[in-house]
Design goal:
heterodimer, A: 258 residues, alpha/beta, Rossmann fold, 2 domains, two-stranded antiparallel ribbon, 30% helix, 25% strand, globular, B: 724 residues, mainly alpha, Fumarate Reductase Iron-sulfur Protein, Chain B, domain 2, 30 helices, 8 strands, elongated
Chain lengths: 258, 724
């Protein structure tokens, strides 16, 4: 079974984010595979191991630095990669432009399934999986926590997370699956994996090579940090009753939720 | 003729060799030669030679083993004859001492008799075994023979009446003791029979000196009523029993743990001549060229690892001290060695070709039991805290736990097979250079408002204060870091911290088996240290201390490294810090020795000196202290793993502190501090016991406090999600 995994390189989740214009300052940032995309990589690898055949191809849109994350995925066990290395395109890319570039790259490949995270950990838009499915003209199942593919690779039984429960559905293949936490536990790349990854083929392309010209459909106007979290406060009072009253007053007057 | 050639002496081979051709004597020497040949055959039959063949195929790298041979020889002799390590356990040390010296004395006596009867007399016709020398020799042999009997009885009593739970038992253990006892007892009986038949007679010239064989003489009373014929017949039979028994013993050495008589001295001579129990080095260039890392095939150990297996006599001292064993985990260091030994036997059966040549089989050719899993279980491999208790206790200088690190390395680097919770630790170290995975940019947040000099601003300083991850990120241990900088400033020490340029020391990564990650972390630190021309480093954490001081040398980082207890001790002695403020409510204090300060680096005194300098509370020792200190359970990366097997190590240690009557347990290691604090909470002992780091006490005694200034508390919210 051949699979494609789309991954995005994002700042480590612990990074101190500093705003620079309509983007973030990138100095001193440790870049990692977006955690949901890591689930996607792991799922593709598990599927390959289970079927004992097929290739896992990584597709990523990003500048030069993205190669590090691509190599990490190759070290985990992916076979080949397409790196859409186009800093100018990437700088301006919104979810649509991203999906367009990814779709163009995926189109040239042979695949039974496309995996990617349900959203990227940096901008959290969560639109790419659906757009990608649309652009590829195949079904999309989002927030997947379990996938079982039929032996003939014609369809898959999928469990997806919905509010307060699980939905079980069948989908014909090929299809796009977006990974939710709980799908699997991503593996740690072994040292031989890391060594081998250095020699695995990575196809580097520009957006123009893929014939993608559609610009972004949205533009970021402003970016701002959330207000600093306030220190907690202990409600004072002589007894439980007084404390409860003080709490109710605070919730009503200050927080305005009751 | 074998005397008596003098009146005060005895006839050698009395009642055995008659006049005329000495048939029995010749027979005896044929038997001796036969016994030696059977001993050699035994080495082959018992698998000893086969195991050595495997040792010759060993490919693992090793440390220097034969440098400075004369001092090694001297060390070995002192170890053997003074029982330097053996006597650290008084009871088993004493009985080994008695048996050892009993045997040695009897061996010397036998050699003297041999020289007299078979060399000196036949060649030169000189009889030196007479008069004072003879009497002295007789007394000497009797006393030491008795000592050996006492030793054997002590050993038997331990096996039968108060067998420690860490002592294992195989058939040979009892056989050997009863066997030795039988040889010694028959020896005394034949002596007694001879005395009864000869010296007891008042006409014998030896009669006045009869008590120079005190044991033989005493035993002879039993035979007082026997006729001379009966005495002689019994003597003749028992003499042969004794001789054949003694010769059989020589053969048995090859088949049993008695081989340690030969192999342990070899192992002592070849002991690692390093400051630390050597963990196999992995040169950085290896990561570019090698195809396999760590050990999963037994031949990947070094030849010396194979000798370790042969030198082990299963005494169990390593088991007695092992924190994993003592909390019912499936790790017994002795069994690690013994299991590797049995595994070698097992594998040899498959890997020996018909010519008896050992074939090293490639992974895809070999289908027998695996070293990891079948030979040594993964639970065993992961249970070790690297406390070094086993290595320190071993009288044969066997390296038990470093072998487990080799196996961990294979599991981690080749198979990515490690306890699930370690994944986040590795990722934390990779992405944020700390095992908690907290944002690297917050590494110096603890120092906010304290006006701590930062290397990047100061340029250079006499001392680099390497805070380490715990001091920088862990709320409990930030207080230690704060205490230390306050004390350093008070003393006017020229120091600076690296702030966010500091990285994880890598100790946990190394001991978990991720040498690749360790070297990446270590190399980054060394580069930063060198960029500020750092010469001297003070560490808060003993793990950082040990790693920076010893392990970084392998990667080209040579620094003078001090643990903070050493620095505070010096500053107080110089009068730079004065402890004038008594601390209330300390009660009885006990010190928990950190493994990495104590056993690893022999720092036992400074922490105690500091505690005494407080002039508050009174100091008691726990049952296990100094070199026998019991681990807190956090070393070897265990800090980051769940403890699902057996009971909890930290609780056992906490209980020990309580049992010692302490109200305050002092630590000088962030891991220990955390583990003991948790132990107190888990056992709900908060009202009886408190844990605190020595630095926090010193800072109070100096009239300061360990409080986090307001500036550090505000700022960013705590990022506790990071560890989920």
């Amino acid at each position: 079974m051949n699979t494609v995994v789309c991954l995005k390189q994002v700042p480590d989740t612990e990074t101190l984010i500093k705003i620079a214009g309509t983007g973030i300052a990138t100095d001193g940032i440790k870049w990692v595979i977006s955690p949901y995309d890591e689930f996607a990589v792991e799922e593709a690898l598990k599927m390959k191991e289970k079927m004992k055949a097929g290739n896992v191809t990584i597709v990523s849109l990003g500048p030069d630095r993205a190669i590090e994350s691509i190599r990490t995925a190759l070290a985990m066990g992916a076979d080949t990669a397409v790196h859409v290395n186009d800093a100018a395109y990437y700088e301006k890319a919104d979810p649509f432009a991203t999906a367009a570039a990814l779709a163009a790259a995926v189109k040239g490949l042979e695949y039974d399934a496309v995996f990617l995270g349900k959203q990227a950990m940096d901008d959290d838009s969560g639109q790419v999986p659906a757009m990608l499915g649309e652009l590829l003209g195949i079904p999309v199942v989002t927030q997947v926590i379990k996938i079982e593919v039929a032996d003939d690779k014609s369809k898959a039984s999928v469990t997806r997370e919905v509010e307060g429960g699980h939905a079980l559905l069948d989908v014909s293949l090929p299809a796009v699956f977006s990974a939710q936490k709980g799908l699997n536990e991503p593996r740690y790349a072994s040292l031989p994996g890391i060594m081998k990854a250095k020699k695995k083929p990575v196809d580097v392309k520009k957006a123009a090579d893929l014939g993608v010209s559609d610009g972004p459909k949205t533009v970021v106007k402003e970016l701002s940090l959330p207000p600093a979290r306030q220190a907690g406060r202990i409600i004072q009072g002589d007894d439980a009753k007084a404390k409860a009253a003080a709490l109710a007053k605070a919730l009503h007057d200050e927080v305005k939720i009751i | 003729m074998h005397g008596p050639q003098a009146e005060i002496s005895r006839e050698i081979f009395w009642n055995i060799v008659g006049p005329g051709f000495p048939v029995e004597q010749v027979l005896l020497y044929i038997l001796v030669v036969g016994a030696i040949l059977l001993f050699v055959r035994g080495l082959v039959k018992s698998g000893f030679v086969t195991r050595l063949k495997v040792a010759f195929e060993a490919t693992g790298s090793d440390v220097e083993r034969v440098n400075d041979p004369w001092s090694r020889l001297w060390y070995t002799l002192v170890d053997i004859f003074a029982h330097r390590k053996i006597l650290k356990e008084p009871y088993q040390g004493a009985f080994h001492f008695f048996i050892f010296y009993g045997f040695l004395a009897l061996l010397i006596t036998t050699i003297i008799v041999f020289l007299q009867a078979d060399v000196i007399w036949p060649i030169w016709r000189v009889w030196f075994m007479k008069d004072g020398f003879y009497l002295g020799l007789s007394l000497f042999a009797d006393i030491f023979g008795l000592l050996a009997i006492i030793g054997v009885l002590m050993a038997l009593a331990r096996r039968y009446f108060f067998k420690p739970k860490w002592l294992d038992e195989k058939g040979e253990d009892n056989v050997i003791l009863w066997y030795i006892l039988a040889i010694l007892v028959t020896g005394f009986i034949i002596e007694a029979l001879r005395i009864q038949a000869t010296e007891v007679n008042p006409a014998s010239p030896m009669n006045p000196y009869i008590w120079f064989s005190p044991v033989g003489r005493t035993v002879a009373f039993i035979f007082a009523g026997m006729s001379e014929v009966a005495l002689r017949d019994t003597h003749k039979v028992l003499w042969w029993v004794h001789v054949l028994g003694a010769l059989g013993f020589i053969i048995y050495i090859a088949y049993s743990k008695l081989i340690h008589i030969l192999m342990t001295p070899v192992n002592i001579f070849l002991r690692p001549d390093t400051d630390q129990p050597p963990i196999r080095t992995m040169p950085p260039e290896m990561f570019e060229t090698a195809e396999s890392f760590g050990i999963h095939n037994v031949e990947e150990f070094s030849w010396k690892d194979f000798l370790d297996n042969e030198a082990c006599m299963r005494c169990g001292r390593c088991v007695e001290v092992c924190p994993a064993f003592n909390t019912d985990k499936p790790l017994l260091p002795r069994d690690v060695i013994q299991d590797i030994r049995s595994y070698v036997n097992q594998k040899a059966q498959i890997a020996l070709d018909p010519n008896g040549t050992y074939q090293v089989l490639a992974d895809d050719q070999y289908t027998g039991p695996a070293l990891i899993g079948d030979g040594i279980s993964k639970d065993t491999i992961w249970a070790c805290t690297t406390c070094m208790g086993c290595v320190d206790a071993c009288p044969a200088y066997i390296l038990q736990f470093p072998k487990l690190i080799d196996l961990r390395r294979y599991l981690v680097m080749m198979e990515s097979d490690f306890p699930a919770e370690v994944l986040d630790v590795f990722k934390g170290m990779e992405n944020n250079s700390n095992p908690w995975g907290i944002g690297a940019h917050t590494r110096a947040d603890w120092a906010k408002g304290l006006d701590v000099p930062i290397m990047a601003e100061k340029g250079e300083a006499e001392y680099l204060f390497y805070v380490g991850c715990a001091g920088a990120f862990d709320d409990l241990n930030k207080k230690v870091a704060i205490s230390l900088v306050k004390l350093f400033k008070l003393a006017g020490l020229d120091f600076a911290i690296l702030g966010t340029e500091e990285g994880c020391c890598g100790d946990s990564a190394k001991k978990i088996g991720n040498e690749y990650l360790y070297q990446a972390l270590a190399t980054a630190n060394i580069e930063v240290f060198k960029s500020y021309n750092v010469k001297k480093i003070i560490t808060l954490c003993p793990h950082g201390y040990n790693t920076l001081k010893h392990d970084y040398k392998e990667l080209g980082g040579n620094f003078q490294v001090f643990h903070y207890t050493e620095i505070l001790d010096t500053l107080i002695k110089k009068g730079k810090i004065q402890l004038k403020h008594p601390i209330e409510n300390l009660g009885t204090i006990t010190l928990h020795d950190s493994c990495y300060l104590g056993r690893y680096n022999k720092i036992y005194d400074q922490p105690r000196t500091l505690l005494k300098a407080l002039k508050s509370g009174s100091l008691v020792e726990m049952e296990d202290h100094h070199a026998k200190s019991f681990c807190c359970g956090a070393g070897g990366g265990r800090m980051w793993m769940e403890e699902t097997l057996g009971t909890r190590i930290n609780q056992k240690r906490t209980q020990e502190a309580l049992d010692a009557g302490a109200k305050t347990v002092c630590t000088a290691c962030p891991f220990c501090y955390t583990m003991i604090s948790d132990g107190i909470k888990e056992l709900e002992l908060e009202d009886k016991l408190q844990a605190i780091d020595i630095a926090q006490l010193v800072v109070r005694a100096a009239g300061l406090d360990d409080k986090i200034p307001k500036a550090a508390e505000s700022g960013e919210p705590k990022q506790e999600e990071a560890t989920e």
